[in-house]
From TrEMBL:
Active site, renumbered: 63
Entry annotated with the keyword NAD: no
The keyword Lipid biosynthesis appears for this protein: yes
PANTHER family for this protein: DIACYLGLYCEROL KINASE
Binding-site list for ATP: 3, 22, 70, 88-89
Protein name: Diacylglycerol kinase
Source organism: Bradyrhizobium symbiodeficiens
InterPro entries, sorted: DAGK (IPR000829), DAGK_prok (IPR033718), DAGK_sf (IPR036945)
Primary enzyme class: transferase
Phylogenetic classification of the source organism: Bacteria, Pseudomonadati, Pseudomonadota, Alphaproteobacteria, Hyphomicrobiales
Binding site for substrate: 3, 24-28, 63, 92
One Pfam family it belongs to: DAGK_prokar
Residues bound to a divalent metal cation: 22, 70
Amino acid sequence: MLRIWKATINSRNGLAFAFRSEQAVREEIFALLLSLPLAWLVGATAMRAVELVCSVAFVLTVELLNTAIEKLADRLTMDHDKQIGRVKDMGSAAVGVALLMAGAFWIIAIIERLGFI
């Protein structure tokens, strides 16, 4: 039980640090909070609403991982390094793919809600 408590505190600390230091994390948390009521309006079923919220939470998850990679890379060196630049670009690409996925889920849900599918 103590290990779970410590892990929870570490997670909270990591999220708080990311929130304070990264604009993208703040924007995605805002989007997640906004998605909570909107998903229930857009989703044709309860399961669809949960999927919509989870798609936004997934974007936040990938952003947190990307932020961790960037912070670690910057800790290694602040000099321009081609390989580190590529790693950062891949993390950014992962966020982009997650955003495209979430966008597709929301667009499909809206089309479904409008009765086109």
